[in-house]
Amino acid sequence: MQKSDSRPEAAPQHGKPRAGDEALDILATAGEHVEVTHEENKLVLNKIDWHLMPLLVVIYFLQYLDKQTLAFSSVFGIQEDANLVGNQYSWLGSILYLAQMIWQPFSSYFLVRFRLSAFLGTIIVSWGTCLACMATAHNFAGLMAARFVLGALEASVAPAFVLVGQIFYRRSEQPWRVAIWYSQNGFCNILGSLLAYGLGHIHSDALHSYQIIFLFTGLVTVAVGVATYFLMPDNPVAAKFLSQEEKVIAVERLRANQQGVETKTFKWTQVWEMLLDPKSWGWFGLGLLISIPSGGIAGFGPLILQSFGFDNYETMLLNCPFGAMQILVIFGGAWLQTRFRNRSLIILGSPLLVAFYINSFYIGVQPALYSWLSNNVSGHTKKTTTTALLQVGMAIGNIVGPQLFTKEEKPYYRRGLNAVLAIYCAIMALTCLIAAYLKLLNIRNARRRLAAGKAEILTDYSMMNMKEAEAHRAAIRAAAGGESKELEVGDHAFDDLTDLCNEEFIYVY
Q: Which of 7, 186, 407, 437 is 20 to 30 Å from 500 by CA-CA measure?
């Protein structure tokens, strides 16, 4: 590690609450700012990846699988066995997202106040238990109650994972990590379909096929929840798999993000700023619009395939290519985000729907949206509440989506598919507006820096890999004959400032 002359804030006295970030304590042990080398960064990043990503992958796979159990069970006769009539099946899809919408404010608060491992472990065990208990539901009322509880318990998973990306990873690294855990949607459509195919062949006099699916996936989820409590690191400072020196590197490499690491103080001033920030509502709008087709296809995808004349088991197998296309699109989107260092173009580039399988392309928009939001918000409370607002938008979209597809319109579902075409046009227009606003914010911050006597134009090192950042800093020092104003930044990166309050923050559009 190379040290510079700038010194971080001294560690607080014992027992005195800190207004800033937990990262300041670990940085105080180094005594000086540290410039992390490419080799050091690679070593620490690999450790973080191997201890964190497998757990995120398994949790998100189960979360999506547990939601998809309704779609899978529809093929095995849940509508007939539970005596569902009219649009009751549609409401079983919608109620889960209504619960998520209601729970989001509480989720954003708990993610700030409680340890990540304890909070996630508790809700995963709880929703697994709830899913297993769904096997005892035999009518619409029982299924609705269970789905509502399940939705509330699952509401915190995606916001927690977005927060994990902000806590552990540089902004340039986040798209690939979001893609890795979000790609489980696609893997779930493949492996989940195969799982449902296998479980559907179990014949029991006591249980229907859909009850076996609920029971099996619920019990597996409970086991993973217990493991999460012991294996999930809360933040780089508390990561037991990192040495003291590696913790310094893990935190210091995040300085260029200007987003801090974590603070356990919930700040209402940041909530009000979030509510008054136009880009928060822009992401809310995008989340809503993107989730309408997602909600409709997630609940009715297998039924659409079945309406083409395939039997139960053929429908499950034919759902697999849909998942494979989702995986390709998600990782393709992550590669494009990293290659061009742009988020909005990925959303703009998603094609319109022309057939059922092309519908898989919408899935590439959602991880790009998570990355875009994650890269452009700072302040710990503001980060959790902004993600919560996005999730509210997504929940509303997922409530509306299933209502666009009704059994009476099969096999073509023209009304729903025509609505989806119009929605994608609206997504493109809103994306352009948000990108333009972020560009204006960068111009505003450049003027603020100039007025404060700082470098007007800053290089966004958080969007570079560490090798590129090293080379760029060396070139600047060589050109300036020493230190440069452009390098004198980041002193307040861990002070829990919001993006609008920090003139050194660089927005990614």
A: 7
Distance CA 1, CA 249 (A): 8
Q: Tell me how many helices (H) and strands (E) the chain has.
A: 21, 2
How far apart (Å, rounded) are the C-alpha atoms in residues 347 and 349?
Answer: 5
What contacts 238, CB < 8 A, 6 or more positions away? none
Give the position of tokens 């995120």.
56
Q: Which residue has the tokens 């179990």?
A: 202
- CA dist., res. 124 & res. 56, Å (int): 12
What are the CA-CA distances from residue 232 to residues 238, 370, 441 (Å)?
Answer: 10, 21, 36
Please give the Cα distance from 111 to 495 (Å, whole number). 19
For the CA atoms of 353, 357, 359, 365, the dihedral, rounded to the nearest 10 degrees, stands at: -120
- pLDDT tens readout for residues 144-167: 888 899 889 888 998 999 999 999
26 neighbors 247 (Cβ within 8 angstroms): yes
Spatial distance between the Cα atoms of 486 and 476, rounded to a whole number of angstroms: 8
**DSSP, residue by residue, 231-271:** H--SSGGG-TTS-HHHHHHHHHTTGGGTS-S------HHHH
Residues 6+ apart with CB under 8 A from 450: 456
Q: What is the pLDDT of residue 142?
A: 86
How far is the C-alpha of 169 from the C-alpha of 53, rounded, in Å? 12
Q: Which of 393, 400, 394 is nearest to 416 (CA)?
A: 400
Range of weakest confidence among 41-55, 140-154, 184-198, 426-440? 184-198
Closest CA to 405 of 509, 302, 493: 302
Residue 2, SS3 per DSSP: strand
Which residues are within 8 A (CB) of 17 and not within 5 positions of it... i.e. 6 or more apart?
Answer: 265
Name the token pair of 340.
């061009």
Percent of the chain clearing pLDDT 70 (strictly above)? 76
SS3 annotation, 13-38: CCCCCCCCCCHHHHHHCCCCCEECCH
State percent of the chain over pLDDT 90: 27
At position 163, the amino acid (one-letter code) is L
